[in-house]
Amino acid sequence: MDEIIKMLDENLAYTSHAIQEGRIFIYVESNREEAICPYCNESSIWIHSHYPRKLQDLPMLGSKVTIIINNRKYFCRNQGCRHKTFAERFNFAKIRATKTNRLQEEILSIALNQSSVSAAKQLRKNTCDVGKSTICTLIKKGL
Predict the structure, then answer these.
(1) Calpha distance 134→132 (Å, rounded)
(2) pTM (2 decimals)?
(3) What pLDDT digit, counting tens, does each position of 22-36 carry?
(4) What is the pLDDT of residue 143?
(5) For residues 46-62, average pLDDT
(6) What is the C-alpha to C-alpha distance for residues 5 and 77, in angstroms, rounded to an integer?
(7) In the chain, what's the furthest Cα-to-Cα distance?
(8) Residues 67 and 87 occupy one common structural domain
């Protein structure tokens, strides 16, 4: 499982998984020693706190997948930076996203060939939990 997680981001490490009600929950954590402040580009090793970040991903073996990252917040030690803390970021998901980039691309590819209502029904059945308004927002953003 660790090899699959490394395909998303080499800085992630698999910790465990659970299967509940036909869903797969994969728990991961960062193996970085430090993180870069996205506001001032200063490196930090000072951890402020942890929080769970849930991201829906492409289905696996016919089951919906949720990746739960034990995400870390860091202190920015740069006195000139306006932000005192920042959360570590990963390339496979946008800031504040609840779906991975590759799941968003899959949603778009399905939604561009049908209405957002029928696409939402199809996606909720086998791929992910998504509503028609989310689909419309993704189409407007154009990813």
Answers:
(1) 5
(2) 0.88
(3) 899 999 999 999 999
(4) 55
(5) 95
(6) 30
(7) 51
(8) yes
Task: Summarize pLDDT for 2-25 with one digit per residue, the tens.
Answer: 888 999 999 999 999 999 998 999
Q: Clarify whether residues 116 and 88 are in a common domain.
A: no
pLDDT of residue 22: 87
Helix (H) or strand (E) holding 21: none
Residues 104 and 43 in one domain: no
Q: Do 54 and 82 belong together in one domain?
A: yes
Round to whole Å and give the CA distance between 135 and 129: 11
Query: How far is 71 from 64, CA to CA, in rounded Å?
Result: 21
Instruction: Write out the residue range of the structural domain in which residue 32 sits.
Output: 1-94
Q: Examine the domain organization and report whether 39 and 85 are in the same domain.
A: yes
Domain boundary among 74, 94, 114: 94
